[in-house]
Amino acid sequence: MKLTQTFSLLMVKAKKKEVAFHVREIDVDQAGELLDEFGVESYIGTRGFANILSEMLDMDIPHHWARVTLYPGEQGIVAIYDGQTKLTPDHYELPEEAEVRFFHYQLRDQITAVLPMPEMNNVALEAGEVEEVEDGDELTTIASRHD
C-alpha cells in the first residue's frame, strides 16, 4: 500500500482521465493496521518524517523520494505533517507543537456519481465538476481531471 506525505490530482493516472475517490481520516492505529495488512510502499521524501512515522507506526518506514503515480482501483494512506518546525534527518520524535494526520483513500474508475443533496433528491455530477459530501467522519470527493 502506498504511503505518501501528500496527495495531488496530478498523481492520478486514468485511461479515461476521469476518476472518483473516497477519502476518510483515520487514526494512527488504523493506519498501522492497514500498512501491516497490505505492506508498505513508502513515498515519504523527508528523512525526518520517515523516522517519526517509523516510531509512530512501530514499523520501518523507509525514506524514499520518488514521483508517485496513483491508478483507479488503488488505495493508500496519506500522512500529513502539520507543524511549524522544519524536520531534519535527525528528527525521530514529533515536535511538541506538531501533529500528523492520516487519511485513507480509494481511487475508483467511475466517471459519474449520484450524491444525496439536502435541497434536491439526487444530483449527478458531470465530468469536470467537484463535490465534497460529509458522511459522519468520512469525506467523499468526486472529481475528474482533464488534460
What is the ordering of alpha helices and beta strands? Answer: EEHEHEEEEEE
CATH class membership: Alpha Beta
CATH superfamily: Uncharacterised protein PF08960, DUF1874
Q: Largest sheet, if any?
A: 7 strands, mixed
Number of helices: 2
Structural class: alpha+beta
Mean pLDDT: 79
Total number of strands: 9
CATH fold category name: Rossmann fold
Would you mind describing this structure in some detail?
By secondary structure, the chain is an alpha+beta fold. It has one domain: Rossmann fold, CATH 3.40.50.11170. Helices cover 15% and strands 35% of the residues. A 7-stranded mixed beta sheet has the order 3-1-4-5-2-9-8. A two-stranded antiparallel ribbon has the order 6-7. The chain starts with a strand and ends with a strand.
Quick tags:
single chain; 147 residues; alpha+beta; Rossmann fold; seven-stranded mixed beta sheet; two-stranded antiparallel ribbon; 9 strands; disordered C terminus
Layout of helices and strands:
Blueprint: E1 2-4, E2 18-26, H1 28-38, E3 41-43, H2 47-57, E4 75-82, E5 99-108, E6 114-116, E7 122-124, E8 131-135, E9 138-144
Parallel strand pairs: 1-3, 1-4
Antiparallel strand pairs: 2-5, 2-9, 4-5, 6-7, 8-9
Q: What's the short version?
A:
The protein has two helices and nine strands. The chain is an alpha+beta fold and 147 residues long.
